[in-house]
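User: Batch of two.

Assistant: Item 1 of 2:
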Amino acid sequence: MSQALLNLRELSCGYSEHRVVQHLNLHLNAGDIGCLLGPSGCGKTTTLRAIAGFEPVLAGEIQLADQVISKAGYTLAPEKRRIGMVFQDYALFPHLSVAENIAFGIRKQANCERITGELLEMVKLSHLGKRYPHELSGGQQQRVALARALAPEPQLLLLDEPFSNLDGELRRRLSHEVRDILKARGTSAILVTHDQEEAFAVSDQVGVFKEGKLEQWDTPFNLYHEPLTPFVASFIGQGYFIRGQMLSPDTVQTELGLIRGNRAYTWPVGSAVDVLLRPDDIIYDPESTQKALIVGKTFLGAATLYRLQLPTGSQLEAIFPSHADHQPGQQVGIRVEADHLVAFAVPGSIATQASLGESGVRRYSSDS
């Protein structure tokens, strides 16, 4: 079993009258890459700065490798934390060469040349060691910043929106490269981003933030398929809700028919619920009697993303093969094809009035 390297317990940060982060609990295992994900102003960067030692802690504590490094009234100096940092603007020294930038933080000067050479090779910049930052592209500068942060062999690496200054294709390619480099070295890391694709490409665990609170800390797969709150369900992926009524623990009646899934809920029969549907749950079926109005479309190449409106006014998104070309204003046949059921109680319904726990869900196990 992996050992937790980083622990945040009941962490609160901010100002005397305004707590940006509240009651935050998470842990990161040694060798894992975590991500703090959420909209602007949700507290993810404040959390990263608190881990780095740049932000005081109002309550709770931060523990790194069994050592408390921050708590109310105490902050271990950033330079004593064995934490590396990759900034959004790279923060390279303009008067130093690539090799000199990387070597800057190496403590053991006897091994400096060897370590610098290994890192240059790892980030694929061996041939550019004598160049200066202004002579490099954005992607190359980011690799130098990563190598420099890894040079002192930190226990934990923090990356603050590291790809935000790069264009789309380069961001995707570099995010995969960074994950490969961190995994090859066994380096634990925390990434901050608002880009879901980036978070999923790099991370083993992702924490979704909303207004200073951690909604869910989980694997990308579980965030997408088993969101614990309506916010996570709608923020991750492209999720839409339609209203339904519980017929049994694993079956809901909706305007798209019966939806049955691989989990059971403890809410009473008759409870009003909102059912989460993803674009890949909606199948184009010209023979179906269930029709939807196309109100928008986005061509994706191999497929087309359609925004659909149901007779009740509810909207969904669906991905159809690109050869099934339809125009806004047309009616199309659809059906639901989902092997899961993700539902949330409607406020004021029977389900929320009954004291049945936070999510009301009981997952099936292999013994069920």
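Item 2 of 2:
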Amino acid sequence: MTLFDALKAEIADEWQAYVRHPFVEQLGDGTLPLAAFQDYLVQDYLFLIQFARANALAAYQSRGLADIRRAADALEAILAETALHVRLTESWGIGREQLEAAPEKLATVAYTRYVLDCGQAGGLLDLEVALAPCAIGYGEIGARLAPRLAEHPEHPYRDWIHEYAAEEFQQTSRAASDHLDTLTGGTLPDRRFQELVTVFRAATRLETAFWQQALDDLGS
């Protein structure tokens, strides 16, 4: 069992609440109100800026070229991911300047700063575990939602689902999971594992709150 699978097993209920959140299910069915998706995507762009910083921090904390290269690859993947956000928001008449000037909402601040704090107060493994619900969880969500595209030829969120179901992102997710195992060195004392469970649980709950934020603003 990978470390990521072991962490998911420890917080099974919280994980399902995240990956099968009503926001995700409505997005997958194509029934999510456009206003909720727009709100989410603007916040997710701001979210990714902070995640880019987190991966830069991961590079700084790395002690070898392999880990530095891995952090650089993850940073590059995030920068590429923002292209989807810019393309979609521009189609709604929201330019890049307006996008970057949007205020961060509370759930956006909460998760992104939590991740950065994990990296600063802990170590590289703590940081990567805090990143995992996003870095790996989005791949799981994308793969699960992808079959729904065939059922809905005019799916309004096709581009988003395709982004995270595509092999490129799936490879990035697998690499993130493999990296967690590499960082443990093959062994992990139970006390240390429980520390990581605490980090992973908090990060997953904060990701769930990030979905809910977009629905709350609609009064859902």
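The radius of gyration is 17 Å.
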